[in-house]
Structures are given as structure tokens and as C-alpha cells.
Amino acid sequence: MNTSTFIQHLLERFEIEHAKRDRSGVYGFTQRLMAYNFSKI
Questions:
Q1: Domain of life here (predicted)?
Q2: Which of 4, 19, 21, 23 has a beta carbon 3.0–4.6 Å from 28's, enabling a disulfide?
Q3: How far apart are the C-alpha atoms of 29 and 23, rounded to whole Å?
Q4: CA distance 3 to 30
Q5: 3-state secondary structure the chain
Q6: What is the reported pLDDT for 20?
Q7: Rounded to an integer, what is the distance from CA 14 to the centroid of its chain?
């Protein structure tokens, strides 16, 4: 799997999880990570 294919699959996964409001996968992880980093500012 090359980089562009991986990024495409990752973006598709983001869209699916966001549409379903799924907080257990990649989308939820990045949301928690960004919230943690924001609170450190």
C-alpha cells in the first residue's frame, strides 16, 4: 500500500466515522488528541 492509497483509505474512514458519530475509531482519537492539545495552550 503506497502513501496516497493509505491517505485515501484514512479519509474515507474519517468520513464514515464522522457521519455515524462514531467516537471509537480514528475520528474519535483525533478529536480527543486535538482537544488535549488545545487545553495545553
A1: Bacteria
A2: 23
A3: 7
A4: 19
A5: CCHHHHHHHHHHHHHHHHHHCCCCCHHHHHHHHHHHHHHCC
A6: 81
A7: 5
Nearest to 18 by CA among 10, 28, 8: 28
Nearest residue to 26 (alpha-carbon basis) of 17, 38, 39: 17
Q: Which residue has the cell 474512514?
A: 13
| pTM, 2 dp | 0.55
Distance CA 7, CA 15 (A): 12
Residues, the chain: 41
